[in-house]
Write the C-alpha cells for this entry.
Amino acid sequence: MRLPDRSLPQTPMRLPSLAPGFTTRFAPAPTGLLHLGHAVNAVWVWGIARAHGGRVLLRVEDHDRGRCRPAYEAALLEDLDWLGLVPDGPGTDAFRAGPLAQRQSDNTARYAAHLARLEADGQAYPCACSRADVARAAGGGAATGGEVRYPGTCRERAIAPDATQARRVRMRPGTAETFDDLRLGPQAQDPDAQCGDLLVRDRTGHWTYQFAVVVDDHEQGVDLVIRGEDLLASTGRQLRLARMLGRPSPPRFLHHPLLRHPDGRKLSKSAGDTGLAELRAAGHTRAEVLGLAAHLSGLQPSAAPIGPDALADLFR
Ligand code: GLU
C-alpha cells in the first residue's frame, strides 16, 4: 500500500460567511478507482456543506467515453456507501437504478441544446484542427500554466458544420475573469491568454470536461464548487462560459489543497496510489480513512479517526 508520506501545513480554515441553502457537489470521474485524493475532496465537500447548511449533489462525470468504465462507477458508488457520505440529491441507489441527469453520459441532449444556442449566436464555430495542428500552430510552446493555447486557426475559416463534430467557443480577448476564491483569495485569469477558444466537443463527438461541468453546475443549481487546486486554472474559463450560457450569477469557488507526492506528482490510482477499496480490504475503518484525509489536507493536526457525521466540526 502506498500512502502519501507527508501532510500539508496545518492551516486553520476560516470560511467567509456562507449563507445556508447553497448547493455543492461531489463529482468524480469513473476513469479509475477512488483514492485518498477523492477522500480529501469528499471531506471538504461534505464537511463544509454540513457545517454551513448546504446540500451535496453526487454527479458522475463520465463525459470521457474513452476512459470511463461502468465498473468504476459501480466501485465509486460502493466506496461512497462505505464512507457513509450520503448525497442530498439522487443517491447511490438512484445511480444504480438507471439514467439520471447527474450522470454526464445521460445528459448529452442538454449539452447539445446549449451548444446549439451558442452556435446560433455566432459564439461557437466548427474547428477542423487536430491536436497536432494546434500544437504546431501554437509554435510548440505552451502558454501560461503549461497549456497549449489554441491560436484561433479556424475562427474565421467558416468550416462547414458537417465537416467535423468539433466545436469551439470564442473567448473574448483581453478580458480577465476575476473571482474571490473562498480559500485562496482574489484571482484574475484571462481565458484567451491561457487556452484560447475553448473546445466544447471534440472531433469524435465527445463533450469536453470544461463544457459539461459548466452546463451541469448551471442546470443543477450548483452555486459553490469545492474542488482541488489542480482545477484552479480552469475557473476563469468556466466563469466566462457560465455567463455565455446565460447564468447571471455563476458559482463561487473554493480550491482545497491537493495531495501530492514529494516530487509534486498528483495522486492517481493508475500510478499505484492506494485506493479506498484497498484501505477497506486492509481493515481500515471509514473514520480512519476520513481522519487521514482531513489530516493530509491540513484540516486536523493528527490523523485521528473522524466519522462522516463529525466532518462538519472541521469547518466550524
Ligand atoms: N470530475 C472532476 C475530477 O474528477 C472534478 C470536476 C470539478 O470538480 O470541476 O477531477
The mean pLDDT is 92.
